[in-house]
Amino acid sequence: MSDQTTVTEAAEAVPGQAPEAVTNRATGEVLVQVRNLKMHFPITEGVLIQRAVAHVKAVDGVSFDIRKGETLGLVGESGCGKTTTGRCILRLERPTSGEIYFDGVNVANLGKRELVALRQKIQVIFQDPYSSLNPRMKIGAIIGEPMKVHKIEPDPKARNERVRELLNLCGLDTRFADRYPHEMSGGQRQRVGIARALAMKAEFIICDEPVSALDVSIQAQVINLLEDLREEFHLTYLFIAHDLSVVRHLCHRVAVMYLGKIVELADCDELYDNPLHPYTQLLLSAVPIPDPTVEAKREHQIVKGEVPSPINPPSGCVFHPRCPRAVDGCSKNVPEFREVKPGHWVACTEV
Amino acid sequence: MAVASEVQADVKLDELFPAKPWHAVAIDLIRRYPLGAAGAVIVVVMILMAIFADVLSPYDPEENAFEFMLTPPGLQFWMGTDQFGRDILTRLVYGARTALFVGFSCAFIGAFTGLVLGVASAYFGGRFDLIFQRVMDVFMAFPLIIMALAVVSIFGTGTQNVIIAITIPFIPRCARVVRSSALAIREIPYVDAARACGFSDARIILRHMVPNVMAPFLIMISAFVGQAILLEASLSYLGLGVQEPTPAWGLMLQGGAEEYAESAPWVAIWPGIAISLAVFGFNLFGDALRDALDPKLRAQ
Asked: Which chain A residues are closer than 8 Å to B130 by Cβ?
């Protein structure tokens, strides 16, 4: 592929991290490549002539790959930039710098018209099912609209049929097509959100905390639905979450984010059984064990301090002020994101 | 299955709380918003007057009848006649037609233009929003009546120009209010979802954002109708609006007040009452609408 060469060239031009090695995976065709992605939001001052006084570095140099048919988990605490990363790939935000290749095409610089074609391939499921559906539209119209606009199913009758099919596929009664979102429960609405993503025949779906707003029993149903659909339509997911047990159940690989950077990336089991980065270790130790006797006896590691401001992140390794294993060099040297074991990447000098 | 049981639960709920018949809803509304109901009655009476003006009045509103000049209110002419012998009640009824025509056209054209511009301004944001809002500020800096006077002096008098004159200052007022609601809606994920689906800007603005700013918009429209009626009366009174012999309340007031305030006060009193009542009615109705559409107030 001709695009492949440009990808490598672009990757080599990026200083700091070593993303060209990230692509060096043994198996699987790569669908999405993110290279040194940065999203800095300006904080402006002034009424008529606005100038940027500072930047919120929501995403600050993130690189990863997603293979076809794979589910990549993106975890981290609130405000670490995982949702912004997803929004950049969707091109709901125009990234400050970096490249996002989808099927070999750099998405980051696409114009409005070229984006329309991309929109059909990348879809999103939002966190809050209560606000992700237009309250003034019936469910049938919400699911049918993309098919109408993109002429996937221009005939109204066939479109109605397809809407009902999608509802069934997502475990909803076809009668829901004539209802409004406020007449449905959170779990049902989230199923509608999934049906809308499928209506476009998307290949890649960004799941932005799709179950965090649902109660636990419904969470399992929606997760199972996502799994079934993945098998049936060979979908690729970027699964953004903060619930680590959900991620372990669903994902093939997991990337851990902290303050706009990826600190560790590994296969799911490897990451959970053998976490290398101190932040990942602390994060995993915070997961409660569903057994009160074990939970009571267990030693808890508590992270000191608060998450620093992304406006003025710490020098060197961004985690060093809170890191239990920090040494002098951590405040000066930006740790290289390196492969310590095959497929296991860590950004820490002390590992 | 869980889904099936949820559907069943919904059916039972519908049976437990059957939809109320329309008259029960109406009585409920009257009890909760008595002033609003009074406003609605005034508005409805006015609309009926305007529609059935030909049927209601036995006289011609425009033809002079000098033999009946300045007849006081009585059995033949319930509200008396003016200086040209025309029946005041007839002219009042036909005047409702003018007032409502001007009121509704101005309110609807002004509010809808403001609606689309306001939502577009919020949707596009950034520099476009900044510049557009400063332009709106310039329009807002003029008091309504001064702005209308300026437009009339440029385009000339007549019903059509009065409508233009009143509509233009309405646009920024509506755009400003709608923009603030649209700014909040812009951040709600269903707008992001629409963008992620690759919909055009026009579709997102018209189909996904505009229907969701309807509550402030309806309140604006109802307030605008009253304001437009008052403005039209003011312009006509100043001789810059509707011209003789078209029946218009402001015009009737002017003709009566200047020369006959002492000798034939009825010429000015009736159109004055009509203007106040109409504006009062629309304002009461608009206030009640605002309360009814505000879920926080409704909960109390």
From this structure: 48
Q: Taking the domain A2-45+53-121+203-347, which CATH number applies?
A: 3.40.50.300
Amino acid at A318: V
ipTM comes to 0.82
Say how many CB pairs under 8 Å bridge A and B.
72
C-alpha closest to that of B292 among B46, B24, B30, B77:
B30
Pick the CATH number of B28-50+82-299 from 3.40.50.2300, 3.40.50.1220, 1.10.3720.10, 1.10.760.10: 1.10.3720.10
B194, closest residue in chain A (CA to CA): A146
CB atoms B212 and A127 under 8 Å: no
The SS3 call for residue A40 is strand
B70: left (phi over 0), alpha (psi -120 to 50) or beta: left
Instruction: State which residue of chain B sits closest to A199, comparing Cα positions.
Output: B197
Q: Could you say which DSSP state residue A185 is in? A: -
Out of A120, A135, A221, the one facing B198 most closely (by C-beta) is A120
Render each residue's pLDDT in chain B as its tens digit; 300 residues. Answer: 444 444 444 444 455 555 667 788 788 888 888 888 899 999 999 999 888 888 877 788 877 777 777 777 877 778 888 777 788 888 888 988 889 999 999 999 999 999 999 999 999 988 889 899 999 999 888 887 888 888 888 888 888 888 998 998 899 999 999 999 999 999 899 999 999 998 999 999 999 999 888 888 888 888 899 999 999 888 888 888 888 788 888 888 887 777 777 788 888 888 899 999 999 999 998 888 888 776 555 544
Which tokens in the block code for residue A298? 């267990």
Contact of A121 with chain B, judged by CB distance below 8 Å, is answered with no
Interface of A with B in 20-49 (CB under 8 A): 48
Residue of B nearest to A206 (CA): B196
Domain positions in chain A: 2-45+53-121+203-347, 132-200
